[in-house]
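User: Working on a comparison across species. This one is Nudix hydrolase domain-containing protein from Buddleja alternifolia. Can you predict its structure so I can line it up against the others?
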Amino acid sequence: MGSCNACCHRLPRTLLRSSPSLFPSSSSSNISIPRRIHFPFCPPKSIRNIYTSGEHFTWDDVVQFAHDDSSDVLRGYFDKVTLCNRNSEKQSEFIPFMIEGQIVGYVHNRFSLNLQRYKDVFMLLEDTSGNSNFGCHVALHPVLSSSEDRTKAVGNVIKCLGENLIPGIRNELYPVTSSFGTPEFFSLERAAAPFFGIKVYGVHMNGYVERDGEKYLWIAKRSKVKSTYPGKLDHLVAGGLPYGISCGENIVKECEEEAGIPRSISSTATAVGAVSYMDIDGYRLKRDVLFCYDLKLPEDFIPTNKDGEVESFKLVPVTHVANIIRNTQLYKENCNLVIIDFLFRHGYIKPEAFGYLKLLKSLRSGDCT
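Assistant: Here's the predicted structure for Nudix hydrolase domain-containing protein from Buddleja alternifolia:
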C-alpha cells in the first residue's frame, strides 16, 4: 500500500473538620480491629465530593465520609464506573494503529499530525478494511522490522515530542500486543500508551483481614509526590504488567515493594477475574484491563511501603470502604472498579439492589482481550 497523502489533507486541524483516628494504620502501635465505631460527624451531601484532589484530604476526612450511607444504593457506584468510561461517542475521532496487519492501538486523528513529521518511523496508509472513518491507519515504517528497532525508533520520537505533548514520561516500558498473551511487537513508554491507544494490563490486589465474620480492607494513601494521582486512596498493592513477567509473579513483586508482604504470604493471593474500561480524554484513549486478586492477610500483619510510592496505610471495614467509594472521589479512579468487583464477589452488593446486573456488566465495559 502507498502513502495516503490525500487522506492526510482530510484530517481536521481544529480538531473540614478533624476527628480522632478510628481505624488502625500502618503507623499505629495498636492494630486491634475495632468491633464497633461511632462517628461523631456525618458530612452533608453537598460537600461529599469536595475532595477531588488527592493532596487535600487526610485520614480524618476519610473517617468522616466512611459512615455516610446513601439511600440510593448503587448510584454512587455507577458514577465511578462512568468516570473510567468517558466520551465513548468520540471513538470515531481515532485512527487504527496497525502492525503486521493487526490493530494494536488507536491514534487521535489530530495527534497523528505530530507523528507525520517523523516519516522514517511513522506512515499514514490507505485503509480499505473499513476500520477507520478517515480511510487511513497509522503504521510503522517497514524498515523497522524487529521489536528492538521499533522500540528504539518510537522511543526517540516520544523524546522529541517531549513533555508538552506527552506529559509524565517516566522511562517505563509497556509491551505493545494485539491481545493478552500474544507476541510483543515492541515496547512503548508508559506515559505514551494512551496517546497510541494500546491495550494496557495491570494487576490490582485487595488485601483484607477477617475477624468475627467481618471483613476489613487495607487501603493505601498514595505519596503526595507521585506524578499521577498524588495523595489519592489506592489498593494495598497494584501495578502495571511489564513484558516478560506473569501476573502471579508481578503480584508477588509488587507485594514486596509496595507493602512489605513476604512471598510466603503473597504467593497465596487468589486470582479472581478482571475488570476493564475504555476512557477518552482529548487525544488519550485508555484501553485498560486490570487482573484482580484477593489476599487474606493475618490479623497482626502491618504493611510497610518500600518503594516510596505510598504515604501510609489504614485498615478499614469493607462496609465503610463501600461508602467511601459511593460518596466521594477520594480513590484513584480505576481502583473503584476493582473494589466494586470485590463487593459483588463478597456479597456486599446483592441482586435485590435495583440495577445489579447492569452494574455488574459495566465493570467490563472495555475490551477484555
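For your comparison, note: Residues 1-54 have pLDDT under 50 and may be disordered.

User: Helpful, thanks.
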